[in-house]
Amino acid sequence: MIRRKHYIGLALVFLAFAASACQETEAVGEYDNWEARNDAFIDSIAKVASANADGKWKTILSFKLEEKDIDGNTTPWSNENYVYCHVEKSGEGACPLFTDTVLVNYRGRLIPTTNHPEGLIFDQSFKGELNSEVNIPFKTCPGAVVVGWSTVLQKMHVGDTWKVYIPAKLGYGTSSKGSIPAHSALLFDIDLLATYPVGLEVIQ
């Protein structure tokens, strides 16, 4: 009787361990080969942007590399040096300068995965559907964000709404940030509402 209870106890421990191991495997699987998957995703977006079938794609070289080009250095061609943007709506306002203050609505995601087919939302300035009459925009400047954002904001016009695809190199690179793993491409919906010259107080 004691031996039977002993075996039953061992069986229960084994089942608990197996269930735990299965859960850990699934959790790890979400980000297996993450760097390669993100690189492949950006490569696929680069091909779509290059084809530009609907005429609404923009391929923008990192502004830091543009600065190097001005100094006469040669920039090696690579998908990871560009930001890929799909224009959802075109505005006619001014483009922000590097030191300007901007007001934006945005939502940021990771690339699609099994558990998050639309991409895990890691940051956003609004919840649910965007309502410009209710939502309070995010205030920043192109010089205070990751290189991919800096690159895009300086090319957007006030009133623009873009879907933006930023390679890991122009995001957080080999570092992790909150719920963003290292080597993550960053996907954003960005709506540029306003831009103000440096020194001008912005009232939201």
Features:
204 residues, alpha+beta
Describe, in plain words, how this protein is organized in 3D.
The chain has about 200 residues and is α+β, with helices and mostly antiparallel strands. The protein has helices at about 1-30, 35-50, 65-70, 145-155; strands spanning about 55-60, 80-90, 100-110, 120-125, 140, 160-165, 185-195. It starts with a helix and ends in an 8-residue tail after the last strand. Residues about 1-25 have low confidence and may be disordered.
Task: Give the end-to-end Cα distance, rounded to a whole number of Å.
Answer: 75 Å
Rg for CA atoms? 22 Å
State the secondary-structure class: alpha+beta
Please mark out the parts with pLDDT under 50 across 5 or more consecutive residues, or reply none.
1-27
Largest sheet: 7 strands, antiparallel
Number of E-state strands:
7
Number of helices: 4
| H-E order | HHEHEEEEHEE
Strand content: 15-25%
Share of residues in helices? 25-40%
The geometry reads as globular
